[in-house]
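TODO from last week: model PAS domain S-box protein.
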Amino acid sequence: MKRLRCLLVIGWLCLPLIALAKEATPLAQLEPAQQQWLDGHRHLRVGLVLQAPYAQFDRRLQQLYGANVELVSELARALDLDLTWRNYPDQAGLEHALQIGEIDFAPGLTQTPASLRLWLFSDPYMRVPQLVVGLRGSTRAVDLEKLGAADGVAVRLPGVLADYLRSTYPRLDLQGVANDREALQRVLSGQARFAVLDEAQLSRLSRESEFSDLAVVADIGLPQLLRIGSRRDWPLLAEVLQRGLQALPAKTLEQLHQRWLQPQYPRGGESAGFWQNLALLLGLLLLGALATLALQRRQQRRLERGLLAAREALVERQGREEALRLSQFSIDQSTVGILWVHWDSHVRYANPAAEHMLGQGEGQLLERPLGDIEPSLDMDRWRVLWNRVRTGDSGAQAFESLCRCADGRLLPVELSLSFLRFRDAEYLVVYLTDITDRRRALAELREREARLKGIAGNVPGLVFRLERDPAEGEPEFPYISEGSQALVGYAPVEIQQPDMGLRSLVHADDRADYHRVQNLALASDRDWSWQGRMVTRQGAERWADIKARARRQADGRVVWDGIVWDITQSKRAELALASSQEQLRELAAHLESVREEEKARIAREVHDELGQMLTVLKLEVSMCELAFADLDPALHERLASMKRSIAQLFQLVRDVATALRPPILDAGIASAVEWQARRFEARTQIPCLVQVPDNLPPLSDAKATGLFRILQEALTNVMRHAQAHTVQIELRRDGDLLRMTVIDDGVGFEPEQSRPTSFGLVGLRERVLILGGSVTVDSEPGEGTSLSVAVPLS
């Protein structure tokens, strides 16, 4: 087994060598002039900037390693070069070494207008994208154009990447940091939502456990292209290096990129050695567990037989003792007094509640006759109760009595008796309940009834009781408070007359409504309320609010207890408030009309004036691009960026103008509804079915705009709250009305339980009222929502 394991380990170690032999890079095919030059310059000097993961120096092994080191090694193998390695701390040191002639070429450079004066560059051999990083799991793929000022983006400043983001995405909230590590730490701490850095630095930092919760969420589209730069005075060297790069297999460059630049977040158990060690450890633990288990089994068999019987007996005994303790605890802690009384009327047991209730000490009630506690229970009466309770007579099991306490006072109690047979003996269990509070409550209730009658006589209104005898059927007023004199000028006796009552006091114009409400309540024995005008003895009109609550008495008589309030002042205030609300609604309609006109004017000015200026600016940039772009590639790129920014500004102008007042409204409300539906469908990916008639009568601009705004508000509510899968929009003519219906299959809601701080439906209803129409909202939880708006055509 040991020999087989050694062979497997040797084979596993030889696999990379075999793969390397299979993927050996072939020699590059050079032209004669290039081959002749290379034969005379086999020894070349390579300059490297020490920066992970491109190039690093291992002090223990005294050798260089990294992506650029492996690339140049493959290139040297393909060209049969003898290399001398020289490393520098930064790019400035590398360029200085080139100027003084210390190096011949360097990998991992990016082409800039300034560097073209120092180097001859090869074609790009590696693309390093600039990535957007966010928290893993909580962030999906993002679009930088949709990020706002609230989404902080950490980026290293100063730098070309930050300049690019600032010019391309001006809305981003860029947070400058000193290095890429700090940018990622800002995302982890919540100070920024995203960080932007190149893939190489992300691959270096992602191997640390600190950043294991991060993930790539976007690519900003500005990759860093790595090239090989060589001396400008050796153009043949640049051609030879270019041929060497072309000879390298694409798979080699891809593997090089994956090994050094691909982000790899640390995960436990990714290496084979981990699983081998884990399997070995688990095997040792398993062997130890088996040995321990065998010993335990041997000892367990010895103990199980001796403990089984003892355990069963102990469990049975513990169960009985626990039940006994629970029963005794329940009796001792009960707030009801409990006495066990033998047939000879002597007490055999008294719980602490009974002793405390009667003021007796512990054990002082035992062996005393029950007549000492309840004087009316002499021996003869006790025997009668004993026999009746023993035979199950329910009438003798509960009654009220007075018990004598230790201090001689009589305590009102309720006695409940129950028969008990225990250990060949018979007892009556007597439960004592203190009813002092109950009697006190009854006395207080009678006092409150008397007080209520006194209060009713002084209420600033009219309190009444209306009764109806089921046999006679005619209602009558058995009680009317003295407040009737101050309210209507009549004494209670006058109103109680059968030919008068409250009906004769109601204003003639409101009498029919009062009769309808009262007759309906009398016929159905329900509560009733009414508001209207009443006429006093002096002929003055007063607004009154009548409320009566129905209740049925034990004899079948129905009684209505009610009160008549004088609401004259509040009613006048209510009418004034209604008038004020109508004026406010008219003001709101005027303001809405002015607002829409101002939006239309601003939309025209933004679209015409700003659009013309942007067109001129775009033409000027295009002229500059035609005239000067070929002189400098960087200028060409800058002008292209300006053109993209102008195009984005064009789109922004169109969006602003459309949001203020869509031009489609000029084509009619039907076209505007169809356009808004398609726009909603494109933005939310929710299918939208639209039905509009071919010929609609012309609407005024105010009504068309109002209907369009109502549709926008309805679709916004669907997008935010409905979670719908489909939406149906219908516009049809219904007689003299134009009806618009919006139906969704979303989660629905309870219209009566809308949030107090939500003004969506309130604003929608106000818009419909301004147009002189009506609105209906039909919705149930889980059944979707239907919104129907009808406005008059004329």
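Done. The two ends are 99 Å apart (CA to CA).
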